[in-house]
Amino acid sequence: MRNRSTYACVSKHTKCRDSSCSKDVKCVDGGMPSRDGYECNCINGYPGNPYIPDGCSNDKGYNPFPSRTNCTSQCGNIIVQFPFGLEDGCFAREEFHLNCTNMTSSAVLKMSDSQVIGMNVTEGTIKLTEREAVYAIFGGGRNLFVGFELSVKWAAANLSCLEAQQNRSGYACVSMNSKCVAVNTADNYIGYRCICSEGFQGNPYIQSGYQDVDECREPNICKGICHNTEGSFNCTSCPRKTEYDAGKMRCTTTKQQTLILGIIIGLSCGFSILFLSFTTLFLVRRQKTYVKKQIRKKCFRKNQGLLLEMLMSSDGTTENDKSRIFLLEELEKATNNFDPTCVIGRGGHGIVYKGILSDQRVVAIKKAMVIEQCEISQFINEVAILTQINHRNIVKLFGCCLETEVPLLVYDYVSSGSLSQVLHADSSDGFSLSWGDYLRIALETARALSYLHSSASISIFHRDVKSSNILLDENYTAKVSDFGASRQVPIDQTHIFTNVQGTFGYLDPEYFHTRQLNGKSDVYSYGVLLVELLLRMKPIFTSESGTTQNLSNYFLQKLKDGKITSIVSSQVLEEATEEEIRSVASLAEACLRLHGEERPTMKQVEMEMQTLRTKRESSCQAGPRNEGRTQPGSLTRRSSKAARQSSAMIFGERINLWSGDSQQCYSLEQEFMSSATIPR
How far apart are the C-alpha atoms of 658 and 647, rounded to whole Å? Predict the structure, then answer.
């Protein structure tokens, strides 16, 4: 081994052994045995040639699933079971390929040059007939062919059970009720094979190849009544006044029934029939209740209830503030068995019901519409996020229910609907919030998003910021809701790669193309929300010409052309000052920039909105309501020269709002063409 240039054992998984001279060979050194060389051997489980590189390798040639479904399974009177097969795609490895020939109208099954006369997959044996030529002198001498039977053990692969189980794609024991055993000879370890677990029989090499063994058919297995179960059995004693008869293999009465016993039995049967008629309904209801409980337990486990309980128990909040898991009965009672009249909303992630709990709390109960695994994971995600959040502008989570196919979330009921409903309500309703209220709602929304991004214990990106997800309570305070698409971000990361989710019109084009989710994606959606407040138009709207347009693109184009006042809502023109319109438009333009690195953070947005809100409150306290405020229509009467000179300062950068020379506005087609150059 010291002289690597001439060392013979070059393959991995080899061992070197010194070879000593035998007693028949003359030895040196005073007649004492001495080494006369060395030899190389592959270690167990790695057969091959140890004298060539990579000559010893573990067995990877087993394919546990046949590629064909209509395989021929019989040759003559011999049933050929997998892993053996007669046709391509029907056997697990080349060594298990058998040939079925038809000689003089009788089928013969052959393996190489030997005839197969029987096989037992369960015991791992195959019977062969070998033919040996024996010369004898009978009338001048002739060759006589004498056949003898040979029972051969075989292994699925030359691997240990531990090695085979590590490679699940090539593991032979695919049946649920199977196990791996070693195959040894008198001198060496060969490999492994599969057997059925105790209490089962059949072929362990196919998934559905096992069947339960009915142990109760075996004689005298129980000294009483035998009850067969899957994979096992159990025994019960013979009923009173009976004993086990070994000859009949059943319980028999020890003595003849008396007349009194017969009368008692007759009366008992009569009363039993009467009793049964009164208790049938009760038993049926009890059975239904039991079945429901079992279904709920199954759903609880499927919906990862144990994991959620563990997460909630490890939460650092106090017991009174902690979210809890509700029973389905509580929520059915709260919603009158989920009466359709209790539905208060339908969204992309589920249906929302209004309900009243036993403690008189009014709640909103969210029921997911899809029961796929991805929806369950999304549900767990929303619970995990909301249990960590405690903010006055984020909807409060009371708990959840896991006893249904579709998981349920229980929120605090927010009574005044969503910002979208108020913004786009029919003008004939006669109700509208003031411009000051909308500025306050925008500020509260920015506070909630800024908290999620930078103040929560783990940064959270909402990923679906829109006006319909901003709920309003009885005081019209903003409550950010619907965290079904949200993602948590590790402390040491600034972005994550995800499948694109969100609502068109609010969706960040950079995130759409790169799939890199970061806080600037929520900033873009917030910018669309600001434009929605200014223009009172939906993110995707139909123009007068009948074409579908994107609101953010429409806003940026008008801003570029210096025509912002022509599209601002009449209520905004009437109630807002010129400075406020310029400031909100500037902030929206900054949030809607194509490249995320050019957008402000949510913290900066919150500070800008706070400044704007403070200025408005100060101006309202300083003088009459309309003092210092542009009169209706005054913005539209400004000269074009003055309009071109108007600008606003935001985050240290001067942005021209009214000039047609703005370079930050793009058409929708330009925006998506430009985003194609963003590195992915």
Answer: 7
